[in-house]
Every structure is written in structure tokens, then in C-alpha cells.
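Q: What structure does this chain adopt?
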Amino acid sequence: MELESEILGTQKVELQREQNSQLEMVEEHFHVLAVDDSITDRTLLERLLRFSSYKVTCVDSGDKALKYLGLMDGLDNNASTSSESSSSSSSSSSSPQQEGMKVNMIMTDYCMPGMSGYDLLKRVKGSSWKDVPVVVMSSENIPSRISMCLEGGAEEFLLKPLKLSDLDKLQPHLLKTLNHSLEQEPPANNLTACQNDAIVVNNNNNNTNTNISSFSKRKAVSTEPSERSRPKMKELEVV
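A:
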């Protein structure tokens, strides 16, 4: 049991170190899509994210955010009326969509002309990007608006102006992204393998003890005929 606990403890420490190193790696490549029509707020958000070693892509409207993510179905249908122009536009929009595949989080302002941040949230959550965390920002502290966004699928609702301490709230979502990337190799498999190693060691110890006991039994059995043969030798001597 002590050997098994030592093996499990060592394995857990190694898994923790591996998870920390992967967390640092994910943090360096964590890509945020920032959506805000205010150039002042957009610049501040970009500086805060880059200071935290995040990669940032900034757009000034919800439509551009959807285009970046490849979700502009309506515009694509309107553009399909002219086949030649649509083919050229689709080839040009393929590169933003490929870049959008790297987005790990979307941070959007609530009040924007055209498409609001809530509309963008609902559009993202109803698409293939539903697993990407969405954070809504606003300079107005309206409880009904906050509850509506949170119930609509937003992970956080931050009040402007943002501070560097507000980015600490993004850490759980960063861990969620890490866990999602590690789903193919769950830590439970490693612990199970460790337990199997401990069981093998215990089985080997049991087999060794069994061999020793069986050898001692054979030795004890082999000594009995020698003791019985001695009286026969004495009888021969007497005769």
C-alpha cells in the first residue's frame, strides 16, 4: 500500500507540472476577439489584453465580428446574386475565417450601432462557436441588462472602464479552454495506468512470496523421506 501511494503521489505531481506548463503555453496563445465601436475603449482593452500576454484582434462592429468568424450568412446570400462577385468575395473572406478558428474568447461592448452586443452574443451561441466564452462590457450598470446577458450565455459582464484586475476574471475561462484541449487525453487514464503499475508490483511481490512458500514446502516434504530411510539402514546393519 505504501508503494502504491508513493507511485500515485509522484504521478499526481508530474501531472500538475504538465498542466501548469500547458497552462502557460495556452496563455501565450490565448486569442481574444475584441468588439467595440469606441476607439478609446477598444484601444484600452487591446493594451490590457496584450499586457497580459494575450493575442488580440479588434473590430468595431458586430457585423465585422461575425464576418471574422465566418457567420455572415445573410450577406453571403445577398452576394450570391452575382456569381462572379460572390466567388471572389468568398475567396477573400476565407483567410479571416481561417484566422477566426483560433479565437478562444469574444469580448464585446453592449451598446453598438447596428448590432448590439446582446445580438452578437445570441448569434454566436446559436452557431458552431457556442462553446467559445463571450464576455459583455458596458459603461451602464443596469441589473436587468446584466441578468439578460448572463442568462443568454455570457460568461461575464464587465463594467467600463476596464481595469487590469478585471482580466483576472478571465482565468477560469482560460482553464476551461485548457481542459477542453485536454479532453482527448484525460488525466484519469494516467492515474489508472499508475494504479495498474502498482497492482503489477503487488502481484509480483505476491508471486515472489508464493514461490518462496512453495519452495519451503517442497524442502520440508523432501526432508521426510530422508528421516524414514535411516531406520531401514539401521535394520540392514543389524542383519
